[in-house]
Amino acid sequence: LTDTDALYGAVAFSRAAAAASLRPIFGSEITDPKTGRRAVLLAKDLSGFGELCRVISERRLDPDFSLADRLSHLSRRVLLLCPDAALLTRVVAVRGRGDVYAELTRFPGSETPLRRLLETARHLRVPVAATNRVFFRDAKDWSVHRLLAAIRTNTTVHTLPQGAVEPPSAWLKPPRQMARLFEDIPGAVSNTRAIAEQCDVRLPLGEVRLPRFPGPPGETQDALLTRRAWAGLRRLYRRVPPEAAERLREELRIIETLAFAPYFLVVWDIVREAKARGIPTVGRGSAANSLVCRALGITEVDPLRHRLYFERFLNPERTDYPDIDLDFPWNRRDEMLDYVFERYGREHVALISSHIHFRGRSVLREVGKALGLPLPEIDAFVKRLPSHAEVARLDELRTTIPECRPLPLEDEPYRSMAALGRRIDGFP
Q: Around 237, how many Cα atoms within 13 Å sit in the side-chain half-sphere?
């Protein structure tokens, strides 16, 4: 799977491959923002996957990113498939021929550049590999690909800019058809198997890797958390009640059993720094059920007084992990993010990526715009639907919701709008 300048589908792809007992090959098609040239990078192992992530970050963040310069300094943990003769020549001159392939693709109008690339590869003694550049699964899915391109470029399917949509041949062809397509170029197809055999990346999904809090030398994370929690509890009470002491011991025991002490220490450190800077903050959610969180100053709610159960926050009988939400003022949030990056290192900190998916009315609205329907017509159609409407159940809605009965689902263009909407419902 090679997303363009991204790895958005890597996790879902990994899980799907595991469910089908297949070995996934992770990669990305990296583009040059200035020249439009592209190259496919494939990770050979987990270290290569990490390097691939770094290349993508550079591509996204560096306004002066040069594809040719970056490819010339790739490690041997990454395989390179290069479809451009000039780019291939430059990369080989600097990096050498190792782990480099000339990427051959065939579609209408590609024969001249393909022959030029083939001649360059033979001159440089670089192996060739036949690829398919898949953008949709079946040939019949081209209409959906074209629709998504129109949505992405904020145009219609009739006014797509040049280069925004791939040819109808960009579907997942079976092995026999690929073999026939490249039967005049020996090794082009068989080399793809050699490439696949070199790629073995197993993403450690589900493995929790908690950060280690940088505490005093010689003191364990559990000991440090225990010391901080008891110190905080004594600040809360002149004389610690027996029930509070017992509750704290039990919570600390569970935290130690689950090896979550580093997590609590990191959150405590962030809260402590915010308070030192005069930045208002408070922990919310089920963390308020924890006396340890209150003793550390993460939350302000007394779980004993309000009879809150710690097990609703952290339970050794469940596989849930602690989740402490911290709120900061919008105008000082970035200041705290900078602190976390500096304190723990940018290589150890990441922001959560939220993916929005097409759902219900939003699907039909976007499809209608891509088909070129006037906005008043789209609004009149969509507003009859309930907010929870499912595109796959439009016919059913007409029989159960009076407002939906006048929907002209049998008439064009609404029939096509509904049919295409069903095809992309749930897409990111």
A: 17
Query: What is the band of 319 on the pLDDT scale with cuts at 50, 70, 90?
Result: confident
How many Cα atoms sit within 13 Å of 55 on the Cβ side?
A: 34
Work out the widest C-alpha separation in the chain, in whole angstroms.
87
Report pLDDT digits (tens) over 7-63.
999 999 999 999 999 999 999 999 999 999 999 999 999 999 999 999 999 999 999
CATH number of the CATH domain containing 93: 3.20.20.140
Kindly state the DSSP code that residue 156 receives in the 8-state scheme.
Answer: -
Q: Are residues 240 and 121 in the same domain?
A: no
Beta bridge partners of 363: none
Phi and psi at residue 256, to the nearest 5°: -65, -40
Bridge partner list, 284: 325
Distance CA 46, CA 205 (A): 12
Averaged pLDDT for residues 108-131 = 94
129: nearest Cα among 180, 175, 192: 192
Rounded CA gap, 291 and 300, in Å?
10
Residue 216 within a domain: no
CA atoms of 420 and 13, how far apart (whole Å): 24
Domain extent for 420: 360-424
Residue count (the chain): 428
How wide is the angle at C-alpha 199 spanned by C-alphas 193 and 200, nearest 5°? 125
